Amino acid sequence: MKKVVFTLCICLLFTSSSFAASSPADLQNRINAAKTALDDIMQAQDRTIPINILRSATCVAIVPGMMKGAFIFGGQYGQGVVTCRTGHGWSGPVFIRLAGGSFGFQIGAQATDLVLVAVNNRGFQDLLQSKFKIGAGASAAAGPVGRAGQAATDWKMNAELLSYSRNKGLFAGIDLSGTSVTQNREDTNTYYGRPEDFENILRGKIAVPTGAVPFVRDVAHHFVEAKKQ
Fold first, then answer.
1. Of 70, 11, 58, 41, nearest to 227 (Cα)?
2. What DSSP state is assigned to residue 58?
3. What is the SS3 assignment for 128?
4. CB-based contact 59:124 (threshold 8 Å)
5. Phi, psi (deg, nearest 5) at residue 158
6. Within 10 A of 125 (CB to CB), how many other CB atoms are there?
7. Model's pTM, two decimal places?
């Protein structure tokens, strides 16, 4: 009985989070949290995203505080932001949801920061879809870690998206196969104050909102500097 109650609580937590309306202040806090998560990750100089991957990135998605919980049956849910490289810098952010389930011997709950890096145009195209599943519609791999990128040997050929997680200070590649990524149009429209097309935003055709400028500049700082090295 306790197992059933625990599992139901997890399901209710994810469900209530997915349908709760977000205010402009909530969305600004999410963008600020994404900036903080990226800064924390990039400060780990020898245990972070390799330079050659930073140089190749076409888009970056950051999901701060993604919730994972389980009692035999598991689930994970998170909301994050995406920005993409354009011909004149990085785009304004759009909002996404990630959700997935798992089965196996597992128990407990935790929050983890998640990073998805699109490393080619196929990865960029994935993020333009209204919904796709990692490992099915989009090839993905646990991203290699290490500033020099010695472990990054075949990611260019075999993956459109590289995934990472940071939990309790530990940063590592993570397998997100089976996780669904969905455009969060409601939050994106709320943040921009009007309906905007995801593709227009991510291609840099829509001006970056004032509140998102520090986040976009932060992404540019970390990823553009990698290109210069």
1. 58
2. S
3. helix
4. yes
5. -110, -5
6. 16
7. 0.82
Q: Which amino acid is at 102?
A: S
Residues 97/154, Cβ–Cβ less than 8 Å: no
Q: What angle do CA 210, 215, 219 make, to 5 degrees?
A: 135
Candidates 135, 167, 153, 198; CA nearest to 40 is 167
The mean pLDDT value of the chain amounts to: 80
Question: pLDDT of 4-62, one tens digit each?
Answer: 333 334 444 444 444 567 899 999 999 999 999 999 888 876 678 888 888 889 999 99
pLDDT digit string, tens, across residues 107-126:
444 678 999 999 888 888 88
Contact 179, 138 (CB under 8 A): no
Residues 88/126, Cβ–Cβ less than 8 Å? no
C-alpha angle with apex 133: 190 to 52, nearest 5 degrees?
Answer: 90
Dihedral angle sign, alpha carbons of residues 20, 25, 187, 124? negative
Give the closest residue to 162 by CA, choosing from 180, 138, 186.
138
- Which DSSP string do the residues of 132-180 spell out, in sequence order? EEBTTTB-EEEPP--TT-TT-SSHHHH-SEEEEEEETTEEEE---TT-E
Kindly report, residue by residue over 184-210, the tens digit of the pLDDT: 999 999 999 999 999 999 999 999 999
